[in-house]
Amino acid sequence: MRADLVPDDLWERVAPLLPPAPERRRRYPGRLRVPDRAALAGILYVLRTGVAWRDVSAETVGCSGVTAWRRLRDWTEAGVWPRLHAALLAELRRADSLDLDDCAVDGSHVRALKRGDHVGPSPVDRARPGSKHHLIVDRHGTPLAVTLTGGNRHDVTQLLPLLDAVPPIRGLRGRPRHKPRRLYADRGYDFDKYRCLLWKRGIKPLIARRGVAHGSGLGKVRWVVERTFAWLHQFKRLRTRYERRADLHHGLLELACSLICLRRLRTSS
């Protein structure tokens, strides 16, 4: 296994979250189980390169692509990726590298090559099947939560579910933070109904108005969410949705968000 696929600081954070391996049978135990670190290397290899699971080289990562996919399935169903993301967000807050006062939201379309859950005709891609990534970030572009919907869902319909998906972020004394004070968004979120709902949650909406000339100045803060989408789509497996199961694609999204948080944690320390 290549050592650079799973750095030590990543493995130290992932290993305590993994479910215990099933006990081997005493009689006819079968082949030895592939180590979890090798399976994680296979998942990261697919996430970064975008290759098909069947094309994963066992000599490179230490396990077959089928084994890596099965471990991704098991760990996604066990809820490993949300807990990893929440733990890294807490570390960032403890290191004073998280600014939750100003946050930004946006959505990004990706083509879906296979049918499945959360796939719909995309209005920006000639009604071809696609999905949408919905993202909320802090002032520095650190991803706080990500959701997945069909390509035909309007961005504003996922505004409240996206806020609900932000985990309680600990790391400091007192109550954990789970919502911003101010929320920036583009014209796609310009609906008075949702402005009122944000005010009721104690969040000040700073949303560009439709029909108004550009130059509101909101882009000085909101551009970070576009940059984070660029970071996410550097992981080639996320540029196009190949997974038929929505939970597996969403698990890869959360894993990519965790890797971005870990990268920011390294630079801050």
Automatic annotation (TrEMBL):
Transposase IS4-like domain boundaries: 103-259
InterPro entries: IS402-like_dom, Transposase_11
Insertion element IS402-like domain segment(s): 7-85
Pfam family, one: DUF4096
Protein name, per record: IS5 family transposase
Lineage: Bacteria, Bacillati, Actinomycetota, Actinomycetes, Kitasatosporales
